[in-house]
Design a protein that fits this description.
elongated, mainly alpha, 41% helix
Length: 66
């Protein structure tokens, strides 16, 4: 927010508005991870099977950090 000669444009400035939080359905994400195939994992950016296995292992133990 500017104070001074730019104060005439104050109605065009965005206020410090906090956007609403979006909550993640953790159980849905876990089920998605557990259902991934290596081909699907590659399409979303998981390059190595070991990385997919690691995610699935963490999901089974309910220790996935979001």
């Amino acid at each position: 927010m500017y104070i001074g000669k730019e104060a005439n444009d104050i109605d065009e400035q965005e206020l410090d508005v906090v956007k609403p939080q979006k909550f993640i359905d953790e159980e849905e994400v876990r089920q998605y991870i557990l259902g991934l195939t290596p081909e699907e994992a590659r399409m979303i950016g998981i390059k190595h099977r070991s990385a997919l296995a690691y995610l699935k292992k963490k999901s089974k133990g309910r220790r996935v950090e979001f």
